[in-house]
Design brief:
- This protein has about 400 residues and is mostly beta strands.
- The protein has one domain.
- It is built from five helices and 17 strands.
- The strands form two sheets. Strands 1-2-4-6-8-10-12-14-16 form a nine-stranded mixed β-sheet. An eight-stranded parallel β-sheet has the order 3-5-7-9-11-13-15-17, with helices on one face.
- The N and C termini lie far apart (about 75 Å).
- The N terminus and C terminus are likely disordered.
- This is Fe-S cluster assembly protein SufD.
């Protein structure tokens, strides 16, 4: 059942209170949302006003380019997925009455609510067994019509697995992914976006991590026109632990966005957030917003988030906004960092002084910058494939930077 919209309004002052009186705009006494976790949530698209682009969650997004996903009707039917049978991993389509649906989170914005309202069945991935296992689940050619989807990943207590969600081909999709990590489970989820050039992908990932459990969440965004993947992780059990990694490479005209939220809601929980991106070409745009909330019930928290962006050419824009809220003083540590810049001239000079060409020196610097994320994935075949994809992006960087040929008379 969807929640009803709520707002908080403070009592209006009286005329005896130092002569204070209400403003003519009618908003006097309005109290805004106080913490990141207090945002309005609902699974019903009708509970959200039409998107204007002025909302906090949309103000950095090109909302006019995907109104069909925020306001239009969506195809919520099941779609084709490909995978190799793997012991300890079950893949099924389940009905909307499955008890796991809605157990982790709920939409905070209209596109996610539209997907939740529209999906017919959810793709359920269930992990059991204490042995390590890896599976790749591929979606390809979802078409160009607007689509809504829902996925559940459940790692049963003490289970271990790496789940790679591979997205390729054409798509216009808004979706929700719920991740349930049971007690002492160890789960890695990799979301890989290698869509075709015109694809639009809006995704919200909700995760709950249980007692002494661990979640590694990796977002890799390389293809697509607009890709917006927003992970939200609640460290719900004592001793819960998470690493959130992100890698993105924006080309000319691409918009790659990620809004990351970590909620420490249990004692002695730990989180690390590391996102890195590169930008090249006119109109390349990236957005990273990182929110960490250390709640009153989370003494002993250890948390750190960081975002780094490397600008390779002129005409790009990277927005990087870290936020940290702390509601208890009994923590081990908390911090955040953000940086956006161009190549380090000293690094380039050092490499060139040893006989390396400028173009190759630039590739080495970028490769080293992004490889930190790739090496954390833990799947050697996927790591090798992503290194090759980065090399392809860097070769196109050389083409972008190369001067246009001139005609000889």
């Amino acid at each position: 059942m969807s929640a009803a919209p709520t707002s908080t309004t403070a009592a209006l002052p009286t005329s005896e209170q130092h002569g204070i009186k209400a403003h003519s705009d009618g908003r006097f006494g309005f109290v805004p949302v106080q913490t990141r976790n207090d945002r309005f949530k609902s699974v019903d698209v009708a509970d959200f006003a039409p998107v204007t682009g002025r909302e906090a969650v949309w103000k950095l997004s090109p909302v006019a380019k995907f109104t069909d996903l925020t306001a239009g009707e969506l195809d919520g039917a099941p779609y084709d997925v490909a995978s190799t049978p793997t012991d300890g991993v079950a893949i099924d389509w389940v009905g909307r009455d499955d008890a796991r649906i809605g157990s982790v989170g709920a939409p905070e914005e209209r596109a996610a609510a539209n997907a939740w309202t529209s999906f017919e069945k959810a793709l359920a991935i269930t992990v059991t067994g204490e042995e390590d296992k890896e599976i790749t689940i591929t979606r390809a050619q979802l078409g160009t019509g607007p689509r809504g989807a829902h996925t559940i990943i459940e790692a049963r207590p003490f289970s271990r697995a790496t789940i790679i969600l591979e997205n390729t081909g054409d798509a216009r999709i808004t979706e929700n992914l719920e991740i349930i990590v049971g007690e002492s489970a160890h789960l890695t989820v990799v979301s890989l976006q290698e869509w075709n050039t015109g694809a639009v992908h809006l995704a919200n990932h909700f995760a709950s991590v249980g007692r002494d459990a661990y979640l590694k969440h990796v977002v890799v965004s390389l293809g697509g026109s607009i890709v917006r993947v927003n992970p939200s992780v609640r460290l719900a059990g004592p001793g819960s632990d998470t690493d959130l990694f992100g890698l993105y490479f924006a080309d000319a005209g691409q918009h790659l966005e990620q809004q990351v939220y970590v909620h420490h809601d249990a004692a002695n929980s730990r989180s690390r957030v590391t996102y890195k991106g590169a930008l090249q070409g006119t109109g390349a745009r990236t957005v990273w917003i990182g929110d960490v909330l250390i709640g009153r019930n989370a003494p002993g928290t250890d948390s750190y988030e960081q975002n780094r962006n490397l600008v390779l050419t002129e005409g790009t824009r990277a927005d990087s906004i870290p936020n940290l809220e702390i509601e208890t003083g009994d923590i081990k540590g908390a911090g955040h960092a953000s940086a956006t810049g161009r190549f380090d001239d000293e690094q380039l000079f050092y490499l060139q002084s040893r006989g390396i060409t400028e173009d190759e020196a630039r590739r080495l610097v970028v490769r080293g910058f992004l490889s930190e994320i790739v090496q954390h994935i833990g799947s050697k075949p996927l790591e090798d494939r992503l290194q090759a994809a980065i090399e392809a992006e860097l070769r196109s960087t050389d083409e972008v930077r190369a001067p246009a040929p001139t005609e000889e008379n």
